[in-house]
Each structure stands twice: as C-alpha cells, then as structure tokens.
Amino acid sequence: MFSTAQIGIDLGTANILVYSKEKGIILNEPSVVALNIDTRDVLAIGIEAKKMVGKTPSHIVAVRPLRDGVIADFDVTASLLKEIMKKASKNMGLAMRKPNVVVCAPTGSTSVERRAILDAVRSCGAKNVHIIEEPVAAAIGADLPVEEPTANVVVDIGGGTTEVAIISYGGVVSSNSVRVGGDKLDEAIIQYVRKTYNILIGERTAEQIKIDIGYAPIEHEKLTMEIRGRDLVNGLPKTIELHSFEIQEAMGELLHQLLEALRATLEDCPPELSGDIVDQGVLLTGGGALLNGLKEWISDEIFVPVHVAPNPLESVAIGTGRSLSFIDKLQKATV
To answer: Does the keyword Cytoplasm apply (predicted)?
Structure first.
C-alpha cells in the first residue's frame, strides 16, 4: 500500500521546484515549455526547452506559461505541471498516488489567479491542494520562527515579482508586491544594449551579464565582459565589451522600485513589531537576492541589518513542503 506523498511546489516564473518531505528538493527545472504551434503538442519542458529559447524553427516555440508569478496560459501550465509531476514521481522512486500538495502564490494575486493555480495542480491528480503565500513559504524555508508573535521581514525577489512581507504569528501583517524581478532586470539590460550599441542580445545573454557583472547601486571595482549579439544596422553578428558600471545604471531604476516597496511595507508595520525588525533585520531570498552588492545597498538605505537566506533559490520550495505539517494554522492566519 502506498502512503500519501506530501509535496510542495514553488510555481515560479523562472523555475519550478518540487520539494518532498522525505527527499528534499527532488526537481528543479526552468518554467519553459517547447510547443509545436501547429499541433499544440508539448515537445520538451524545463532544461531541454530552455536550451531551445531563440533557436527554434518557426513552427516550434519555447514559451514561459507563467508571467509575473501567475499563470498566463492555463493549458500550457497544466501540461507543464503534468510532466513535472511525472518526473517528480520518478525521482521519488514511487508512483505518487494522489499526493497532498502545497503550492505558493504571490501575495498580490487575485482570487481568479489563485483558482487557476488550484485547478492546474488538481488537473494533475493531486488529492488535496493548499495555497500558501510566497513570503510565508520563503520564511519557513529559511528557518524563520513564523509561528511566533515576532516580526519577520522577507523580501522574495523572484523571476516575475518581488514580494515584500512582514510576517508574525503565521500570517502576513503587511505586504507589497511589485512586478519587478529577474526578468525585468534582464529586459532592462537588453534595452540598454540595444539603445546604446544598436545591438540585439537574447534573454539568456542578458541573464548571464546580470549574473557576471550586474551590481546594485554601490561602489565596486569595474568588471568587463565580452558579449555577442546582432548588429541592428547591418544585421551581422558583432562582439562588444560591456562594463559593470553601465549595467548598474541600466538596472538602477528597477532596483529603486524594489527598495520603495520595502520602505512602504516597513512604513505600514505596527509599532509593536518595529523593534523586532531592528533586532532581526530583513531576509533576502529568491534568485534576485544573489545580485552582487544588493545586501549591502539595502542595508545602507534602510539602516537595518540585511541577511541573505542560506539557500535563496530553494527557500520557497522548502517552505511549501515543510508547511504541510502545520498548514491548518497557517490557513487560519491567512484567511
């Protein structure tokens, strides 16, 4: 007889992660689906599909069905989730017979968007599906004491959105969600290179630039990087050299929007919890937390200690899985 599997899913704009209580992170794949647009057949998902981005013939497209942290294309997301669940059950070494699932949603998502997430996961054969707010999951995954009546401030910088929340006693006291994340930063780099150098680069190149020489607005030693793109004047491939100061400038405005969301959330904080924030500080999580100099910059701007989660890319997924053991308490707090 099979015991009911318990899994947590971080349905991210950039990556989908699946966490199992027994085995930890059992799957981490990019949220990309390669489709044949003539037949609507799914040709590849995850890493295989991501390799195809910008490199496919006209009848095959590599799409990201999740945008800004929510489902943009329901059918494609359902197909992606079915494949993800198949892979996850293989990795667990057992057939997941109607698992109990906790899946996360952005704090700013509407009831319609949440219903779409529930329906997509149920269509994959899940027995019970619970939704948990992303910052709460991130806090649980980073080992913060979310059930206690003390303030925990989480800034979850994902691919599509940045979620800022003050969590106390298992619920969100104050929160803000801005549609600024890793994707928007990549887009800003693409636009900057296009405007300044008349060169078109792809999303994958922009992401690599951000990782290698992207910096928050702090002083740093100049770094350079060679990139290749298509010259928009003559249409030929061209190689140019970029340096970190110009990439810092390209991302500056978006990073200030992120900072404003954090400030607005802290301004809404009840006075009783403000003292805890000064002691505990702010926790950065999500892939964006790894941006060079971000921790130091935010700390200088808000005069509060800032920490990066031990494993920022996996915090939300770990938190969703762990939350199953006390989901009733959390749902009472978030209803």
So the answer is: yes
Written as tens digits, the pLDDT of the chain (335 aa) is: 345 678 888 888 888 898 888 888 888 988 888 888 888 888 888 888 888 877 778 888 888 888 877 788 888 888 888 888 888 877 776 555 678 888 888 777 788 888 888 888 888 777 888 888 888 899 999 988 888 888 899 999 998 889 999 998 878 888 888 889 999 999 999 999 999 999 999 988 999 999 999 999 999 999 999 999 999 999 999 999 999 999 999 999 999 999 999 999 999 888 888 888 888 899 999 999 999 999 999 999 999 999 999 999 999 999 888 887 766 666 544 43
Q: Is residue 71 within 8 Å of residue 77, measured between CB atoms?
A: yes
Q: Which residues are annotated as a binding site?
A: 13-15, 159-161, 207-210, 287-290
Q: What is the secondary structure of 14-40 as a DSSP string?
A: SEEEEEETTTEEEEEEES-EEEETTTT
Instruction: Identify residue 205 by its one-letter amino acid code.
Output: T
Sequence ranges of the binding site for ATP? 13-15, 159-161, 207-210, 287-290
Question: pTM for the full model?
Answer: 0.86
Report residue 323 CA to chain centroid gap.
Answer: 18
The end-to-end CA distance of the chain, in Å, is 35
Contact (CB, 8 A) for 101 and 48: no
Q: Which domains does the chain have, with CATH numbers?
A: 6-137+317-334 (3.30.420.40), 146-179+256-312 (3.30.420.40), 182-250 (3.90.640.10)
